[in-house]
Amino acid sequence: MKPVNNSGSPPIQSPLLERELQAYSEWKHTLTNIMEEYRVWARRHGLSSDEDEQRIDACQRALDSDRLTIAFVSGFSRGKTELINAMFFASYGRRLLPSTAGCTTMCPTELFYDQKAEQPAYIKLLPVETRLQRTTSLDQLKQNPASWVTCTLNPSSADQVANCFQQVTQTRRVRLEEAELLGLYDPEQEPPRKGQPATIEIPKWRHALISLPHPLLKQGLTIIDTPGLSGLGHEPEIPLNMLSSAQAILFVLAADTGVTRSDMALWQNWIEGSMHARRRGLMVILNKMDMLWDELQDDTTISASIEKQCNDTATILDLPRGNIFPVSARKGLLSKIQGDKELLQECGLLRLEKHLFREIQASCREAIQNTITVEISHMLEGTIGGVASRHQGILAQLSSLQELSGKSAEVIEHLIQKNQREEADYIQEIHSFQAGHQAQEPPTLQVREQREQMRSRLQKLEKISSSRNTLETRITELQQQDRATRQQLSTLRSISTALHQQIQQPTGNSAS
Ligand SMILES: Nc1nc2c(ncn2[C@@H]2O[C@H](COP(=O)(O)OP(=O)(O)OP(=O)(O)O)[C@@H](O)[C@H]2O)c(=O)[nH]1
Ligand SMILES: [Mg+2]
Question: What pLDDT shows up at residue 48?
Answer without folding.
Answer: 86
